[in-house]
Design brief:
Length: 269
Amino acid sequence: MLTRLRRDPSGELCLSRLAEVIVNRDPRARGPYTAFSDVAGAYERARPGYPEGAVRWLAGDEPRDVVDLGAGTGKLTRSLVALGHRVTAIEPLDAMRAELETALPSVRALAGGAEAIPLPDASADVVTGAQAFHWFDHTVAIPEIARVLRVRRRLALVWNSRDDRDPWVARLSELIGNEVVGPDDVAPIAESGLFGPLETAEFTFEQPLDRERLLDLVLSRSYCAKLPQAERAPILEAVGRLYDETAGPNGVRLCYVTKCFRTAKKGAA
């Protein structure tokens, strides 16, 4: 469910819920990707990384030339580097890329997007997209990804989604909206005819959070980031109350499911 704002009869802002909206997949709800520019610091402080097993499954164990599209502040980038891959990070937003460059000064970080990748043909073994593919213009981006990949090399996509099977996470989702990743998110790959069969894998992990990081996490979601400050405040206040009511001495633990997809570019070796 997506939390929205309305005014009660007294004119005060209050929270209401709109059911059956997948907030980070619905363009009407998620807002423009440029909203992340205003919350880049919160994104870096609060967004989780990815399980090592998931990163190995996506990119492989042997060092490869990897292009991380829509790299943001480098949440996946740093895990790829830690595994020894030669990574070029591509990120269109200056504020997000600046966070990445601060965290990973040795990584090559370029301005650009999936629709116009500033790299030569056949220059990558793996192209990754973390929390990003649903933002791409698939009609343009998928052929562009195929252009920079070497033949029979890999496109690898990953999303962290909150696990609403956990009761506390379900309560959070009642306030800020739910998230799912399904076949529709990756259907354009098969429709393009440029890639082979799609493989999938799932991993789970927990993220410990104190109150400040939880609020930063909510703020870093595009559907909150896009709102004016006056409309963000009631959402953050409601999440703060949930934390105060339920947190233990070590804060809270947010359960995630990491959903991974990989496929190889077609063509003769």
